Amino acid sequence: xxxxxxxxxxxxxxxxxxxxxxxxxxxxxxxxxxxxxxxxxxxxxxxxxxxxxxxxxxxxxxxxxxxxxxxxxxxxxxxxxxxxxxxxxxxxxxxxxxxxxxxxxxxxxxxxxxxxxxxxxxxxxxxxxxxxxxxxxxxxxxxxxxxxxxxxxxxxxxxxxxxxxxxxxxxxxxxxxxxxxxxxxxxxxxxxxxxxxxxxxxxxxxxxxxxxxxxxxxxxxxxxxxxxxxxxxxxxxxxxxxxxxxxxxxxxxxxxxxxxxxxxxxxxxxxxxxxxxxxxxxxxxxxxxxxxxxxxxxxxxxxxx
Length: 305
Ligand SMILES: [Zn+2]
Description:
The chain is α+β, with helices and mostly antiparallel strands. It is built from eight helices and 21 strands. It has two domains: 4-124, lpxc deacetylase, domain 1 (Ribosomal Protein S5, domain 2, 2-Layer Sandwich); 127-293, 2-Layer Sandwich (lpxc deacetylase, domain 1). A hairpin with a 2-residue loop joins strand 17 (212-215) and strand 18.
């Protein structure tokens, strides 16, 4: 991981329908100055939405950010892509009310970001360092994080549908592992869930091109990109939701039966428990220090993707 802040070398564009609204939206991700952070700009209202757990307006099926006046739905996959490739500063200009679902994964976002290129900035990154373990339990669901010098995620899902069932996956999150093992994992649902969700007027834009569908007989629209694609997608969602905290959180995460609601509840819990973490310059985290391109002989290896 890098210690210097990063933005894009040039603007990138995305166009497509939202999985829940079914409406087309247009997104421009634009380079931004140091310490700007990731900020959404809702074109039709002129509202700016900064990343904070308190900007989350809805967590049913996707993560929706907003102000008192407007909302932008399904932000988790584009945020996951930004976090995964390590972009600190960008303005996300959205013409519409939902981020396009594209193929249901973070891969199209990652590809465009890498194609545009990453620009290193002078300032050091700020990160959240976990200094003592913290755990949130909600019924049989839980998230725990312990101190670490890099990001590790263990995720467990347990679906009643036998086609998905119980899946567990662990990963040391680096740019490389994110791009290869997490970013391509797509959104998924069971045929029963789709019926229930559609009855609520959601998932209007969901189809076989952007969502893996599981019936009691197995995958309806295969092939899968990974045999355990659902649990990998939950990790993708978690990485995107974590960025809502504003800065990357460095720690070992253990998530059991999570979802957007639990992810965001955990962030709010963390905000309140200030003795468990601190915001530090990335070079203060040893894992970063030793991988610092400007500070050791292995420089170029870590400075490029
Ligand atoms: Zn997702």
